[in-house]
């Protein structure tokens, strides 16, 4: 049992006994992570297995699917959802939902395109885009806190609000005439080392956030709040501040996706990102992050987004009509969640 779990238990016992929670001194960094270094691999085993089986199921009848070019293209197509899912994991782990990521993505993309077209150096526009995304996430958290409303309701409203602002700024049209010969578009939108630059960014973000969630005090607070918000508050965990940080992180990773999209597409389209919020949530759930909170997996979320991308690519190889895409995606979500649940139940029985 980690120090966070002990603190939560102490808080619950203290509340039941009529006294205040028994506070413990802040634990050291090692106490906030997973109790065993091999747990990360075990937690993601189910979704990784499903991903491998899907790739094999498509690659056996269609060997061209396994070509390096196609696999890289399929992985690249999942980058934007993957980045959103990386931030969404923190929100879901503490029982929050950020439905605004699709609108945030479109608005930040438009802001970046407008800055570049106005003459701002493209590389300098990226920090502005990232800050904008984080600020939008903070706004979600503040409205949720001040109005005492569920984040689901608040971010449903800001989803349309942010998308509307993006459409207004772009005058409802795609923003073009950008300096595509700039190094930002040729490098960040290209394939340095034969691998899309966006994949390198995704790898770095996923590694950093996986460590943050599993090995830092902030990650432990997120999981503790998701396990029992009341007990977490009694134990002295700053619930409001952690909520602000988690939703700001969700906005930040979404802005990162928007910056990469600007570099790749070379234009700012305010209509992009429609439905991305549901795909990001689906990727998290496939990857083992429950809506009930208390735990999450950044690696699993990325794998979940990869599964969605593989399914979409596989439908093309199998010449399945595009109208069946949603049906196939929903089926894969159910299979992936069922497989992950079965593996977890098996693991608990062995313990």
Secondary-structure content class: mainly alpha
Summarize the helix and strand pattern as letters: HHHHHHHHHHHHHHHH
Q: Got a strand count? A: 0
User: What's the story with the biggest beta sheet?
Assistant: none
Measured as a percent range, the helix fraction is over 70%
Low-pLDDT regions = 1-5, 7-38
Topology:
Elements: H1 3-16, H2 39-43, H3 45-59, H4 68-77, H5 79-93, H6 101-117, H7 122-146, H8 151-169, H9 183-188, H10 197-215, H11 217-227, H12 229-234, H13 239-265, H14 276-286, H15 298-317, H16 325-350
Question: Summary?
Answer:
This protein has 16 helices and no strands. The protein is mainly α.
Written account of the structure:
By secondary structure, the protein is mainly alpha-helical. Helices cover 70% and strands 0% of the residues. The chain has helices at 3-16, 39-43, 45-59, 68-77, 79-93, 101-117, 122-146, 151-169, 183-188, 197-215, 217-227, 229-234, 239-265, 276-286, 298-317, 325-350. The model is unreliable at 1-5 and 7-38 (pLDDT under 50).
């Amino acid at each position: 049992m980690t120090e966070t779990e002990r603190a939560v238990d102490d808080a619950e016992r203290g509340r039941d006994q009529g006294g205040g929670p028994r506070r413990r001194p802040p634990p050291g960094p090692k106490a906030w992570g997973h109790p065993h270094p091999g747990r990360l691999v075990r937690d993601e085993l189910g979704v990784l297995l499903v991903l491998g089986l899907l790739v094999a199921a498509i690659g056996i009848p269609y060997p061209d699917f396994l070509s390096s070019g196609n696999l890289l293209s399929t992985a690249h197509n999942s980058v934007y959802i993957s980045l959103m899912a990386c931030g969404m994991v923190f929100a879901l782990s503490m029982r929050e939902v950020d439905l605004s990521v699709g609108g945030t993505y479109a608005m930040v993309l438009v802001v970046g395109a407008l800055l570049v077209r106005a003459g701002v150096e493209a590389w300098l526009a990226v920090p502005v885009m990232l800050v904008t995304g984080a600020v939008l996430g903070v706004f979600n958290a503040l409205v949720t806190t001040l109005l005492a409303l569920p984040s689901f309701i608040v971010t449903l409203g800001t989803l349309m609000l942010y998308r509307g602002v993006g459409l207004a700024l772009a005058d409802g049209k795609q923003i073009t005439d950008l300096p595509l010969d700039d190094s930002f578009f040729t490098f960040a939108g290209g394939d340095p080392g034969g691998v899309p630059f966006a994949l390198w960014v995704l790898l770095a973000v996923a590694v950093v956030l996986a460590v943050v969630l599993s090995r830092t005090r902030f990650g432990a607070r997120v999981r503790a709040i998701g396990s029992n918000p009341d007990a977490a508050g009694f134990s002295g965990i700053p619930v409001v501040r952690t909520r602000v940080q988690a939703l700001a992180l969700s906005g930040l990773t979404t802005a990162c996706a928007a910056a990469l999209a600007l570099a790749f597409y070379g234009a700012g389209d305010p209509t992009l990102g429609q439905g991305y919020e549901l795909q990001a949530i689906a990727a998290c759930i496939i990857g083992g992050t429950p809506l009930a909170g208390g735990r999450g997996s950044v690696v699993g979320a990325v794998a979940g987004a990869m599964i969605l991308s593989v399914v979409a690519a596989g439908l093309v190889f199998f010449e399945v009509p595009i109208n069946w895409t949603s049906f196939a995606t929903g089926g894969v979500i159910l299979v992936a969640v069922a497989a992950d649940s079965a593996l977890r139940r098996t693991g608990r029985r062995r313990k």
